[in-house]
Amino acid sequence: MTVLSTLLTTREAAEVLRVKESTLHQWRWQGRGPAFVKVGRLVRYRVAEVEAYIAARLFPSTTECRLEYAMPNEAVSPNDQGVETFGP
């Protein structure tokens, strides 16, 4: 397999990730999502980068996912961290 055959278009990467192309556009602008390659004016995604992006988002529970993706100014209550609280 050649390097060029491992490059995906935005449409192809969106299909693999099951998101809209516009979502990938937003993620690029926000500095999120899989790493991409610029070829002139074209945007391409390496298959390995898309696979790594998916692998990095593998969570055993929704609690761990919420903690990982909480915004810096978003308060996470002790219950969200799996800490038992008693009383009102």
UniProtKB/TrEMBL annotation:
One Pfam family recorded for the sequence: HTH_17
GO MF annotation, one: DNA binding
Coiled coil: none
Xref: InterPro entries: DNA-bd_dom_put_sf, HTH_17, SinI_DNA-bd
Helix-turn-helix domain: residues covered: 7-57
Protein name (record): Helix-turn-helix domain-containing protein
Organism: Citrifermentans bemidjiense (strain ATCC BAA-1014 / DSM 16622 / JCM 12645 / Bem)
Organism taxonomic ancestry: Bacteria, Pseudomonadati, Thermodesulfobacteriota, Desulfuromonadia, Geobacterales
